[in-house]
Design brief:
The protein has 167 residues and is mainly α. 60% of the residues lie in helices and 2% in strands. It has a two-stranded antiparallel ribbon with strand order 1-2. It starts with 8 loop residues before the first helix and ends with a helix.
Amino acid sequence: MVTIDDLTASQEDYLEAIFHISEEKMAARAKDIASYLNVKAASVTGALRILGKLELINYAPYDLITLTAHGRVIAQEVVYRHKALEKFMIDVLGINKKDADAAACKMEHHVPKAIIERLVKYAEYVDHCPKGGVSWESGFGYYCKHGCSDQDCERCLNEPHRQTAKA
């Protein structure tokens, strides 16, 4: 059985596109996929044939395209990775949605699931822990985990990494 690790980034993109289109329209058509991915119809046909042979989609020329049960599981994993990376970049790193979406689209194919899970847990920590000592509200400006400013924090100014930076 095919796993997500067996697929190319392009194949994952096709599954993700079919997933999103199907969520909206119940099934996808080749022209919907071409439009969604901004590719030519001939490219779509070739990719659909391969995904059909891998039993990830139900495909016949000129017919509606749907995900198989296994294809849906893989597509959901790709969508999850994308959303997790995008959310991390927006909520934790303060990146705008458009840039976060574009970066997540590139990264979702290469970041292992274990790392995605750690990023999700960290984002949850930053979002929910009132004493976490992390604040990105000032756009990566100085933040002291002890509650003082950059100029008057004796504790922070005496930390070894700060002393070498001052010298």
